[in-house]
Amino acid sequence: MATGTGRGSSRDLLRLGAQKRLKRRILLVGLIFAVLSGLLGWRLVELQVMEPDRYLERGLAQRIRTVTLPAVRGAIVDRNGVDLALSVPRRSVVANPGMIEDPAGAAMALAGVLGTDIDVLEARLSSQRSFVYLDRQVEDEVADNVMALDLSGVYAQPEQARLRPGDGSALALLGRTDIDNNGISGLELIYDGLLSGTNGEMIVEAGLGGSTIPGGEYRVEPAEQGLTLVLTIDRALQFEAERLLADGVEAAGGKGGVLVAMRPESGEILASATVTRGDDGVVRPSTEHKVATWTFEPGSIMKPLTMSAILETGTAAPDTVREVPDSVFVHDSDFKDSFPHGTEQWSVADILRQSSNVGTILWAQELGEEALYRQLLDYGLGSVSSLGFPGEARGILTPVGKWSGTSLPTIAIGQGVSTTPIQMLTAFATMANDGRRPAPTLVRGSLDDGGVFTPTQTGDQIEVVSPGIARSVVSMMEAVVSDGTGTQGQVPGYRVAGKTGTAWKPLAKGGYGEDRDEVRYVASFAGFLPAEAPELVILVVVDEPARQTYSGGRAAAPIFSDYAQFAVRQLRIPSEFERTGLDQVGRVMATTPARAFDLQAAEETALAVVG
Amino acid sequence: MTAVVRPAGRSEAYPDRGTRSSATSKVATSSRPAFGAMGALTVFGLFVALLAMASLHSVLVSGQFEFDALQDRLEYGQERSQVLREEVARLESPSRILSAATGRLGMTPPPNRLYLPAVVPGDPLRPLPGPSENPFSLRVR
Predict the structure, then answer these.
(1) What CATH number has the domain bearing residue A187?
(2) How far apart are CA B122 and CA A589, in angstroms?
(3) Which residues of A133-168 are buried (b: 16+ CB within 10 A; e: fewer)?
(4) Are residues A262 and A198 both part of a single domain?
(5) Who has the most CB within 10 Å: A156, A159, A268, B26?
(6) Distance from CA of B126 to the nearest CA of A (A)
(7) A263 & A195 share domain
């Protein structure tokens, strides 16, 4: 019994000891778990309560991808919707120099593909910066070849490049953008805000491989694409203007030239070309839009403006005859005609047809300074046009109070006054438009992504002379082309009204030159057709033609004629013969997209008025 | 034969245990099928729900993948259209046509230009004569 009890008690003791150890172990494990749980709990509190933003931001930064959606710069198209300038995707080759182990080797490999100097590339790849451009907006093939080299730290970054498919055509007008697609000159600068658009943004929650997490964050602020700018220019007319002007200036041995064409009713400029002779002696399109920025003394193309003032004020009628001698002395100067003649009995129309300086001066003296000055101001001389072109000149038309004794006779014949080609073109368009001065414009409107066209607001037309007077001047100018100094400006099948100009060019040292070899000329021809219902006004100016062809009738009028023959076909302007019976059933004029648009718009307007 | 010594206090508990176990077995006998069925149903339901969620998720993922792919295609298409648009404009440009005509094709400008009338056929005053024979047929002499 005692033995049994003793054995039992030792067992009990053992059991009790084991239980105690178990309890202690359980307690210890529980304690460890409690501490661990406490630590985890504390960490949880720290993460979730005390500083949740930091980790939320870190998590979001890992998952949320913000992608800029670049706005594509709008295209510039001609009046028929043909692209003149547009943006296309290109890739730029960029590098992170910090990731490039062997800049010299990488430069050598890249030089062959990019065609860039090895030293330049090596310098860029050895730079301390984290981002360098190696070449910008390269062709796709070049970018592919670079990526095929598999150089670490070298990437191809998508960008938009601005291209002009017509090469240098209309470059002076269109202007340029910098490498980052910001307009820096010409229409690209004027309409930069409209063409640029606004970048968009896409916020997306992406997984490890860059794929979008379904149901995750996804917000898109679409880019507002730049608007398409629709010009009044016709690409074919522009190209032909540049080509014929370059040929004409070459033939005349000139230093340069300008050709600009306009629709008189709307002021829309159809072509605006400038060419200059380069240092290599080749005549090519200029990068300066001289139609708006260049000033010249217009010479005899000013006479129709003077004559319109004479007729408008009732000083004379087209058939009023007066005695016109070979020369006239005014103040301290002797003014002569360009050709010798005796004292003639010439009407106002004869004076214009012969381009007589003396006759014009004599009538201008009867007109008076103030009336002539006011009339020239009304034609838009001495002020910038509505084009708003960067660097546009206003010309020089001295206020009448500052005129000298010879100002009236010189200004009346187009000397001692400087104008821009666009001012003279607008003045002639005024006469072609029944005496109402149109506001010249280069832009028809803008086109958005959805194809909605918004026309530009055209400026108000100002009545300069009455329609009857304008038509009288047009008739007189018709005689200039049919039987006067401008016969080389004739266009077969069309009645043309125009005026030649042969101006002395002021020299840099002052004056016009003492001897014959020193004198430089500016030859010009301004005209419009069909004279009975003008649809096209053209001004051609040749700067410093050679001595053999220095006159407007020989240097500029042939260019006008060649260009007008092309332009009337391009614009579907019917000839006098074609115009006969055009309203009969079955006779239809071929049309252009722009003309069809105009006709449709006119039809809709008419319907709206009727409705 | 092995004698089993049990604590006195505990021996009384055995009948209770036997009673409890018989009671439990009675309850278990009646409720086990219901619990089992419910459990099985719950597991099955859970499985179906998980399967549905997985299917839905896979549909979402594949839809998102397709959406991303379509968006990539759209971007590529837009870029390609711009490139082609530029190429068309370049190929149609008068300067390129002129240089191709005078250069590669060896054409020369005509001494005189003959302009066709701007009035299209249908002119009752001066209709254009129709072709006398098929201008596209080749005649072998």
Answers:
(1) 3.90.1310.10
(2) 10
(3) ebbebbeeebbebbeeeebebbbbeebbbbbbbbbe
(4) no
(5) A268
(6) 10
(7) no
Q: Chain A to chain B, count of Cβ pairs less than 8 Å apart?
A: 97
User: Residues A239, A150: one domain?
Assistant: no
Tell me the nearest-neighbour CA distance from B38 into chain A, angstroms: 34
Residue among B57, B93, B114 with most chain A CBs within 10 A, to mutate: B93
The rounded distance, in Å, linking the Cα atoms of A352 and A307 is 8
Note the pLDDT tens digit of each residue in A564-603. Answer: 999 998 888 888 877 776 666 666 666 666 666 777 777 7
Q: Which domain holds residue A133?
A: 67-205+215-231
Collect all residues with Cβ–Cβ distance below 8 Å to A117 and sequence separation of at least 6: A111
Structure tokens at A106: 């990488």
The pLDDT assigned to A489 comes to 93
Interval A461-509: pLDDT, tens: 889 999 999 999 999 999 999 988 899 999 988 999 999 999 988 887 7
Q: What is the pLDDT of residue A247?
A: 94
CB contact under 8 A, B57 and A214: yes
- Tell me which of A234-243, A372-381, A409-418, B108-117 is least confident: B108-117
Q: What is the reported pLDDT for A234?
A: 92
Sign of the torsion formed by the C-alpha atoms of A260, A265, A267 and A271 = negative
In angstroms, the CA A135 to CA A93 distance is 5
Whether residue B138 has pLDDT greater than 60: no
Same domain, A353 and A402: yes
Q: A224 and A256: one domain?
A: no
Same domain, A398 and A428: yes
- Residue A145, domain member (yes or no): yes
- In chain A, which residues have their Cβ closer than 8 Å to the Cβ of B118? 568-569, 572-575, 578, 589-590
Query: How many structural domains is chain A composed of?
Result: 2
Candidates A88, A89, A587; nearest CB to B123: A587
Asked if the Cβ–Cβ distance from B90 to A589 is below 8 Å, we say no
In degrees and rounded to multiples of 5, residue A348 shows phi and psi of -60, -40
* DSSP three-state, residue A297: coil
For residues A219 and A332, membership in a common domain is answered with no
* Three-state secondary structure call for residue A457: coil
Distance from CA of A197 to the nearest CA of B (A): 17
Q: Above 60 in pLDDT, residue A551?
A: yes
Q: Per the domain annotation, does A605 fall within a domain?
A: no
- Listed in sequence order, the residues at least 6 apart from A506 whose beta carbon sits closer than 8 Å to its beta carbon are A297, A512
pLDDT digits (tens, 9 = 90+) for A50-69: 877 887 788 778 888 888 88
Banded pLDDT at B126 (limits 50, 70, 90): low
Q: Which of A83, A233, A575, A591 to mutate to test the interface with B (most CBs of B within 10 A)?
A: A83
- Say what the pLDDT of residue B18 is: 45
ipTM over 0.85: no
Residues of A in contact with B96 (CB under 8 A): 167
Question: Is A335 part of a structural domain of the chain?
Answer: yes
Q: Are A300 and A196 found together in one domain? A: no
Give B83-92 pLDDT, tens digit per residue.
898 899 889 8
Q: Name the interface residues of B facing A (CB cutoff 8 Å).
A: 57, 60-61, 63-65, 67-68, 79, 82-83, 85-86, 88-90, 92-96, 98, 113, 115-120, 122-125
> What is this structure's pTM?
0.79
In a domain, A404, yes or no: yes
A87 touches chain B (CB under 8 A): yes
**What is the least distance, in Å, from the CA of A212 to any CA of chain B?**
7
CATH code of the domain in which A421 resides? 3.40.710.10
Digit-coded pLDDT (tens) for A87-125? 998 888 988 888 888 888 888 888 888 888 888 888 888
Residue A268 identity (one-letter amino acid): E
CA–CA dist A267, A436 (Å, integer): 11
